[in-house]
């Protein structure tokens, strides 16, 4: 039996039962669609996170209190008070020669108010360097100055949403708002910016870190210190110098007992890659269940098809078709079904992923890009074809082993 004729016969058989063929491949379509969506959305999230991180520059080191979290229970370490003024003073160019500048940060949830309007948000105490590192600058007015930090002034720069909720269409510059019953003068307003490196610029009020420590936070420790290093190449050396400086200051001889942790951009990129990889694997495994269910459905329908076409099988064998020819045709039908399901799944997955990327970009105001993975698409085709081959082999073998005389007698 010629290959072209086998393809033609298999295609005719599938067309003869369009509804049954469509329902048969539904599990394959759902499984491949889910896998494409999982890969596309996770790659889009990964790209968004990495682009925001890289926007900081590779010469930034993050110093945080508490040891590096190794599990959910370790996240209580963020409450550690191991970073204070003495740590900030110890981190100087004498101890870290490659250090360019430092930007401490204190984050405190608070209620902002003006007249009868209130806004529950985060207050960030930091220095002028913070705006330069994140490349966020006011659209109206100015950012904090070194004098604001030194004097512990009551100046505040607010995000777009804060301004809209407290002032509406009115001008906010020069006006006062209350933070924990203390008056602050608005000196700047950010444009609508959204998330920048895990930082929601639209819903924040930024004040000098000295003011935050003295009047807002109620504590004397920092949640984060950002260190700007002179060059990208000097980052590993500077990170080591920071470790040594803080360990000496805290009399730590065992690295396992560190009460701080240091993160570079390279560390964050590695972690993001690991997390998205694990999520892809877990969610992909869940989606693969529908592929197995779809494969079982394929095998079941092919067994029904073999029974229905018993006389056809007997006739072909009587006309000289070999068992291998019969096996090849039924196996080809199963593979064609699953590959068609895989192609439909890829198309639907791409469409859904594209829609998700647009919705997330609009609703969350994120620069979320649509990512279509050709590797995932190729894998989807290969997996769907493999399922057709695996689950189609048993019905095909049953068809090839039928006796032509008994098959012709079948009613």
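-> sequence recovered:
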């Amino acid at each position: 039996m010629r290959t072209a004729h086998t393809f033609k016969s298999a295609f005719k058989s599938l067309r003869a039962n369009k509804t049954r063929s469509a329902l048969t491949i539904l599990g394959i379509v759902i499984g491949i669609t889910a896998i494409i969506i999982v890969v596309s959305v996770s790659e889009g999230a990964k790209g968004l996170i990495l682009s925001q991180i890289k926007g900081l520059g590779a010469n930034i080191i993050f110093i945080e209190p508490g040891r590096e979290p190794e599990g959910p229970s370790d996240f209580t370490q963020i409450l550690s008070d191991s970073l204070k003024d003495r740590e900030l003073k110890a981190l100087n160019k004498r101890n870290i020669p490659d250090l360019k500048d430092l930007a401490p940060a204190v984050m405190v949830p608070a209620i902002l108010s003006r007249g009868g309007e209130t806004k529950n948000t985060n207050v960030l105490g930091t220095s002028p360097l913070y705006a330069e590192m994140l490349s966020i600058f006011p659209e109206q007015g100015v950012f904090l100055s070194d004098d604001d930090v030194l004097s512990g002034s009551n100046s505040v720069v607010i995000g777009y949403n804060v301004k809209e909720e407290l002032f509406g269409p009115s001008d906010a510059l020069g006006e006062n708002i209350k933070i924990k019953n203390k008056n602050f003068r608005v000196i700047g307003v950010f444009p609508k910016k959204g998330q920048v490196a895990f930082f929601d610029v639209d819903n924040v009020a930024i004040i000098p870190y000295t003011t935050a420590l003295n009047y807002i936070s109620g504590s004397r420790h920092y949640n984060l210190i950002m260190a700007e290093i002179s060059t990208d190449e000097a980052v590993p050396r500077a990170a080591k110098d920071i470790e040594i400086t803080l360990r000496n200051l805290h009399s730590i001889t065992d690295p396992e007992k560190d009460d701080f942790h240091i993160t570079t951009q390279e560390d964050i990129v590695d972690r993001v890659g690991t997390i998205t990889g694990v999520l892809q694997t877990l969610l992909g495994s869940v989606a693969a269940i529908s592929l197995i269910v779809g494969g079982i459905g394929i095998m079941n329908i092919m067994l029904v098809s073999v029974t229905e076409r018993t006389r056809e099988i007997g006739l072909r064998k009587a006309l000289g078709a070999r068992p291998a020819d019969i096996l090849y045709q039924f196996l080809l039908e199963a593979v064609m079904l699953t590959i068609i399901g895989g192609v439909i799944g890829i198309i639907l997955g791409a469409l859904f992923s594209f829609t998700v990327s647009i919705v997330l970009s609009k609703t969350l105001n994120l620069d979320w890009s649509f990512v279509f993975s050709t590797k995932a698409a190729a894998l989807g085709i290969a997996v769907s074809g493999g399922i057709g081959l695996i689950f189609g082999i048993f019905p095909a073998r049953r068809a090839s082993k039928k006796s032509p005389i008994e098959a012709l007698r079948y009613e």
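The CA atoms of residues 128 and 146 lie 7 Å apart.
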